[in-house]
Design a protein that fits this description.
The protein is mostly beta strands. The chain contains 4 helices and 13 strands. The chain has helices at 4-11, 64-70, 114-120, 160-165; strands spanning 19-22, 29-38, 44-52, 60-61, 76-77, 88-92, 95-99, 103-106, 109-112, 127-133, 139-148, 155-157, 173-178. Strands 1, 2, 3, 6 and 7 form a 5-stranded antiparallel beta sheet that branches. It has a 5-stranded mixed beta sheet with strand order 12-9-11-10-13. It starts with a helix and ends in a 9-residue tail after the last strand. The mean pLDDT is 94.
Amino acid sequence: HLTDEHVEKLFGKGKKLTPEKDLYQDGFYAAAEQVMIVGPRRRMLPNVRVLGPTRKASQVELAHTDAISLGIDAPVRHSGDIKGTPGCVLIGPAGAVELSEGVIRAARHVHMGPADCAHYGVKNGDMMSLAVKSPACSVVFEDLLVREDKAAKLEVHIDTDEGNACDLDHAISVELKKQQPCKCHDH
């Protein structure tokens, strides 16, 4: 995710992101533009797709495996919560941008509209769990943050590593449910 200023530095003066493929949430897209991400010790990931629209702050969301390969200790954070996170260098065809912060592993979350929240008995900020049953490896992911928005369509966001860990492509069933509060800290 890039700011307008960083789009121009990376891709040229006056350049805007070019929507290439719509994402599931209305108004969001994978752009035609790609950058190279460079981490410490000059390790890099080439051809990383930019997502649009632009934002107030540039942010790089990596799967844990990609962060490790770049040599970046990226914390798990919710989108937009980048204060105190590691940075990286982004390289585009017209220039480079050094981010002093903004590299995260995106915390798992679920987008929901009001009707979905009512159906599941949750509200914005609640936590849910996702049970994935697959022949190779069944997994229950906990702590999916509910992100309610009037325009949102029901969609769970987990990263590539998490999807691969549960063999999501071969899942037999997927169940989303309200997470019960932890009783381990009750006094």
